[in-house]
Design brief:
six-stranded parallel beta sheet, single chain
Length: 321
C-alpha cells in the first residue's frame, strides 16, 4: 500500500511516500481502507521529534485521524464489520496511508450524511474541543465562552459544541472568511484577532463582566491577556502552545481563576467513551458539522504540514490517498 513514512525527525521534507506491506488485523482489531486523512498540528510536532511523551520509533507512518470503510476485522470483533463506513480516532500503525489498522475502541460509525473528508475532520478536533469545554472547563448553559481561532479545526468544533450547550459564544479569527465561518458555525460575536483592541471590544459586550471560559489555542501569545478578561471564577483551558510566556499571577488571584492544561492522550478510557458518544449524537442530530477547508493528495503531506501551522486557519486540512 502507499504510505507516508518518516525515517528521521525534522521538517516537512522528511515526509516521504513509500510502498509498504498492508497490515492485517489481529484479534480485536479492524483494517480500514482510508478515503480521507485529517492533518493536525500535533502531527507536525511529533514529526519534529520534539513533542514530549510522543516520540515514535523510526521509521513510522504519521497520523491518527482518518475516515473510510472497514476492509476486514480480526477475531472477537463484534461491533463493526466489513463494508461499514467509519471514522478513526487512533491507529496501530499510522493514518497517512491507503489502509490503517485500529483497535476496536478507536473505530466509530460514520453516518451516511457525513462525507469521508468530514469524517477525517472529526476525531482530534471535536474530541479536543469537547474535552476542553465540557470535561475540563465544566462549562454550563448560560455561561460565556471566548474561542480563540474560531475558524480552525478545533475552533469550529468548540464553537458548535458551545452553542449546542447553551453558552454565549464569542470567537476570534484572522480573516474575513474566517470570521464569516465562525458566525455561520454559531458564534454570537466574532472579532478580528489582528486588531490591537480585539479583547477589549469583546469584553465590552459582556458589560465588563468578562468570560467564564476561554479556549486558548496559542497560549504563548495570548495567555497573559486572557487572564485580564476572565470573569470571577473564570477558566482558561490551554489547548495549544508553541513557547513560553510571562503572566501576572495577580490576574488569577483577583478572579479566583483557573488555568487548566489539556492534552487528549491524558483522557481516561471512560472520558474518551463519553466524548465519542457525544460526537456520535451530535453527528446524528446535525449539531456537529465538520468543516473541510482544503483537500490535498497524500503525496502533498509535506505541504499540508506547512499549511496547518500557517495563520488564517479555515476549517480542516485533509489528505486524500
Amino acid at each position: 500500500m502507499k504510505a507516508i513514512r518518516v525515517h528521521q525527525f525534522g521538517g516537512p521534507e522528511v515526509l516521504k511516500p513509500e510502498e509498504i506491506p498492508t497490515p492485517q488485523p489481529a484479534a480485536n482489531q479492524a483494517l480500514a481502507r482510508i478515503h480521507a486523512i485529517g492533518v493536525n498540528p500535533v502531527d507536525t510536532y511529533i514529526r519534529s521529534g520534539q513533542y514530549a511523551g510522543m516520540i515514535p520509533s523510526l521509521p513510522y507512518t504519521p497520523g491518527r485521524d482518518a475516515a473510510g470503510v472497514v476492509e476486514k476485522v480480526g477475531a472477537d470483533v463484534r461491533f463493526t464489520k466489513a463494508g461499514e463506513r467509519v471514522y478513526v480516532s487512533d491507529t496501530s500503525a499510522g493514518a497517512y496511508a491507503e489502509f490503517c489498522l485500529c483497535g476496536i475502541d478507536d473505530i466509530h460509525p460514520l453516518p451516511d450524511k457525513i462525507s469521508f473528508a468530514q469524517g477525517a475532520a472529526l476525531s482530534t478536533p471535536y474530541a479536543t474541543a469537547y474535552r476542553a469545554l465540557i470535561q475540563r472547563a465544566k462549562a454550563v448553559p448560560g455561561e460565556t465562552v471566548l474561542v480563540h481561532g474560531a475558524s480552525g479545526g478545533v475552533g469550529t468544533a468548540a464553537t458548535q459544541i458551545a452553542r449546542a450547550a447553551g453558552l454565549t459564544v464569542f470567537g476570534t479569527a484572522g480573516t474575513h472568511p474566517g470570521k464569516k465561518l465562525a458566525l455561520e458555525n454559531g458564534a454570537h460575536h466574532v472579532f478580528d484577532h489582528h486588531a490591537p483592541n480585539c479583547l477589549e471590544q469583546a469584553l465590552a459586550l459582556t458589560d465588563g463582566r468578562g468570560f467564564d471560559v476561554i479556549i486558548e489555542m496559542l497560549a504563548n501569545v495570548n495567555l497573559a491577556k486572557d487572564l485580564t478578561v476572565l470573569a470571577k471564577r473564570g477558566r482558561v483551558v490551554v489547548v495549544g502552545n508553541r513557547g513560553k510566556i510571562e503572566i501576572n499571577p495577580r490576574d488569577v488571584m483577583q478572579r479566583d481563576a483557573q488555568i487548566l492544561g489539556m492534552t487528549l492522550p491524558n483522557a481516561s478510557i471512560e472520558e474518551l467513551r463519553s466524548i465519542f458518544a457525544a460526537i456520535g449524537e451530535g453527528l446524528e442530530s446535525g449539531t456537529f458539522r465538520p468543516i473541510v477547508g482544503r483537500e490535498l493528495p497524500l503525496s502533498d503531506a509535506a505541504l499540508a504540514h506547512k499549511a496547518v501551522l500557517e495563520p488564517g486557519a479555515y476549517g480542516k486540512i485533509i489528505l486524500i490517498p
